[in-house]
Amino acid sequence: MENFTYYTPTKVVFGKGTENQTGALVKEQHCKKVLIHYGSGSVVRSGLLDRIKTSLDEAAVSYVELGGVVPNPRLSLVYEGIELCKKENVDFILAVGGGSVIDSAKAIGYGVYNGGDVWDFYDFKRQAEGCLPIGAVLTIAAAGSEMSGSSVITKEDGQIKRGYSSNFSRARFAVMNPELTMTLPPYQTASGCVDILMHTMERYFNQCDNMELTDGISESLMRTVMKNAKILKDEPANYDARAEVMWAGSLSHNGLTGCGTDGGDWATHKMEHEIGGLFDVAHGAGLAALWGSWARFVLDARPARFAQFATHVLGVTAGADDTETALKGIEAMEDFYHSINMPVSLSELGVTPTPEQIRTMAEKCDISTHHNAGKVKHLSVEDMVAIYTTAL
């Protein structure tokens, strides 16, 4: 096993009606003015935003608001939020929404605290020295951003999607009411489940001797998400299934499933970022479309690990050797994706990049990973071109 530091400073308030505690949670932070940051309207239509405002009013917390966050959150809105926070002397950001809203809030927090161009952090030009404190009221179980130090932002100029990680942006608190996810469209729920799975799978597939305990936690989490993703396909209002998925989303990306590993692979995530930046697809769906092609390409570098995944997570009966077992596992995973109406190819995702676009995505991914994509197997530009092409 590898040495590790496990850091989880986020206070979690989980369960029915917990959004009504938001005002008290914010007040605990001793802030003077809050930016309520949210998406494109669902929190308004559902009445959640009004309940949040009422809670803040009852706690005598002053606030301003900025909506308009979209999936694959845009840098232009981040800039707008930075200027608003400076103008209004905001000293706390409350993200009400899913991963995109929380990621946008983190970027705004970096921009206000550090000065200069916030894109510098996502473009690898400098490191943050701090971030405005963040709180989250979660409405989508997917990204795990409510307990992670990660955020991903899309720069419209050049269609560049980049991530930045720092413990400075970890949320002070996360309010999680599974009921708030019940109005999500089935496609978004399924896409979120894939994202949760992939946050654990990226860490699970690595090149080190793994801790038995971490493996056991990871495998149980993945089995739980798969089981409940199928339940939610037929029973979208099933509270217990929503709760299992929501808690799994946080645990999959707060560092727990990476304890004792080398950090994991992450090539599928990085490659999907380029698809998302170019075609603006749902992140989880993009991951599902790519994963099988990536897995078959790198399988020969760690067949025993893929075989363990096949037997421990997917319940596959072992074949004649690790490679046969692993291939059966990859096929079983793709069958699961299909079972919840997720794509397993780019054409099923609804995008058909040209050879020129494929090469551009591979070259941009190579740059974003500092020419070091992949941990199971290091991927060159040509390797990524091959994976994208196979995924068509």
UniProtKB/TrEMBL annotation:
Pfam families assigned to the protein according to its UniProt record, in alphabetical order: ADH_Fe_C, Fe-ADH
Gene3D superfamilies xrefs: 3.40.50.1970, Dehydroquinate synthase-like - alpha domain
Species, as recorded: Lachnospira intestinalis
Keywords annotated in UniProt: Oxidoreductase
SUPFAM superfamilies given in the database record: Dehydroquinate synthase-like
MF-aspect GO terms: oxidoreductase activity
Residue stretches making up the Alcohol dehydrogenase iron-type/glycerol dehydrogenase GldA domain: 9-178
Protein name: Iron-containing alcohol dehydrogenase
Residue span(s) of domain Fe-containing alcohol dehydrogenase-like C-terminal: 189-391
